[in-house]
Structure formats: C-alpha cells, structure tokens
Design a protein that fits this description.
The protein is of the alpha/beta class. It contains nine helices and eleven strands.
Length: 307
C-alpha cells in the first residue's frame, strides 16, 4: 500500500482550485487503495491564519473528502531542523546577503517565472554558531548536475536546478523554514509515495528531488494536473480574489460541487451531483483533461470556460 497526501496552506480560505486539487489527489489515492494524509501547511507564522485550519477541514468533509491521518506542519520543527543540521554537516549551507534587486539584475527568468538566483554568495561561510546563529537567509549549494525527470503524465520536469532556478533559500531571515525543505522532510516522514498536485508546482520538483537525494530519502512518484485560472490568467489562488468556499457552500451542496468539478476535469459527462466516493471505481487519469480552465464567479454560480 502506498501513501498519497493533500497539503493545503492555511493562509486563507479554500477556493475552487483548492477543492479540485483535493478531489484529484483523493481520487488518485482511493483508486489505488492507498492511505491518504491531510497535512496542514502552516510553517510560515507570518502568513498563517490558524482559524482557517478547521475551516478547510470542514470544507473538505462537506465536499466528501476524508483522510486516514492528519498532520500539522508547524508541529514538526524538530525534524525540519534536523534536516538542516544534516545538510550543514555536508558543508552545503551558506548565508546570503543578496537582495531581490540583485536577483533581478541577473536578468534570467527561472522556470517558475521568477528570477533565477546566480548563486553569488556561494563560498561564504556560516557564522561560528552555524545556521542557528545566522542573521541572514540561509541557502543550500545544490549539486550542479542535471536532473532527468518525467512525471506520470509525461510532463518533462528535467532541469539543472542549481543553474535554472539557483540555490534555494532553506531558512529565511525571520527564522521561517522554507517550503522546499519542509515539504521534502514531511513527505518522507509520512511515508508519502505518491504526490499529486497542480502544475504550478512542477518547476520546483527537480529541486526537491535533489534535496531528497542529499538527505538520503527515496523519490516518490509525481503527477501534476491542470489548473483553474482567474479571468486575468493568473493562477487561481487565495491572494488573487478567488471565490472562497463559504460562498460556494452558500450556493452548492457538496455533491453538486463535486459533480461540477468532476465534469470540469472530464471524469463525468455532465455536472449532475455526485459524491466523490461514487467516482472512485471509474477514476482514470487518461480521462482527466490536461488544459487549464478559467473560472468566473457570477455571484450565483461558477462559470468555467477554456483559457
């Protein structure tokens, strides 16, 4: 038996994109007979809103999504720090004094659309007290080799991360541990063998694979699915004025929204109400669309169209 997971951040309310990602990852796990873990990602204390944790859990239950285990990321600081210690023992951590302007001045776009970091501070030593005594962001010097990687959908994830993205920050100036590290550590700790997530995260996969290699962790299988976009074309996200679940719940019943999302994904011929459990027996990825869609909110209902 394998293990899948859904790992929403609790920086805002769930929205249609959140619920689509939950539905697809849940169907993938249940159709395989795998365990399914809900991990609440709240490591960033500057952005997390604890009251959203219970709300997101309630939204998932309302949709018809269950889980076999639940984790809270902020409760795992000790194992995250242990991973940093292991990387420090390899001599790979270094402090970075570069600003965003320095990154922009490099003039190279990274695969995720941001600015590639030119690894300018490589070679700078950590202070005598190690990373715990560092008052600057801490980066990891990634191996310089390329990663040949294709996910289960056939999406080419191959990169030379140290060049294409640049050495990632693992510890911010304010002491917040970075997503790239904690997601790798938490997935390994939970025994996650299968990661299903939106295509927006795909550019980070090669970096995460290198971190897994450095920490001696096995590589899970990956699948990245299509996205729901806002009308202006940005990723549908909490910070971009997306439709919160509370509005959806005022308009739809759980099976009705499940049916709409399943139809949107291509799993059923129409948008009739259907509980997620009724979709498991016939779930196949070759029926799931690959092109992104745009979502409009009319004030009464979701209107979904091709991008």
């Amino acid at each position: 038996m394998g293990t899948g997971r859904f790992a929403p951040s609790i920086t805002g309310e769930a929205h249609p994109g959140t619920l689509l990602a939950a539905l697809l990852s849940w169907l993938d796990a249940r159709a395989r007979g795998d365990r399914y873990i809900l991990r609440l990602e709240d490591i960033d204390h500057t952005r997390r809103r604890p009251h959203f944790a219970a709300q997101i859990e309630d939204d998932l239950r309302w949709l018809g999504i269950d889980w076999d285990d639940r984790e809270v990321q902020s409760e795992a600081r000790e194992r995250h720090e242990d991973a940093l210690d292991r990387l420090a023992a390899q001599g790979r951590l270094y402090p970075c004094r570069c600003t965003r302007a320095d990154r922009v001045s490099g003039g190279r776009r990274a695969p995720d659309g941001g600015w590639a970091y030119e690894n300018r501070c490589r070679g700078r030593p950590l202070p005598a007290g190690g990373w715990r005594a560092c008052h600057e962001p801490v980066r990891i010097a990634l191996p310089d080799h390329a990663v040949a990687l294709t996910d289960d959908s056939g999406l080419d994830l191959s990169q030379r991360p140290a060049h294409d993205m640049g050495d990632p920050i693992l510890l911010r100036r304010d002491g917040v541990l970075a997503y790239q590290l904690v997601v790798v550590v938490d997935d390994h700790h939970a025994g996650v063998t299968r990661i299903v997530r939106g295509r927006d995260i795909a550019p980070s996969t090669a970096t995460q694979v290198l971190l897994q290699d450095l920490l001696g962790m096995p590589r899970p299988s990956y699948r990245h699915h299509f996205l729901l976009l806002e009308p202006r074309g940005a990723k549908l996200a909490k910070l971009h004025g997306s439709v919160p679940a509370r509005l959806l719940r005022a308009r739809y019943r759980g099976p009705a929204l499940s049916g709409l999302l399943a139809h949107t994904a291509g799993l059923v011929p129409d948008a009739s109400p259907v509980a997620p459990a009724a979709l498991v027996a016939t779930f196949r990825w070759d029926r799931v669309r690959t092109d992104d869609l745009v979502v409009d909110w009319t004030g009464e209902a979701l209107a979904i169209r091709t991008a």
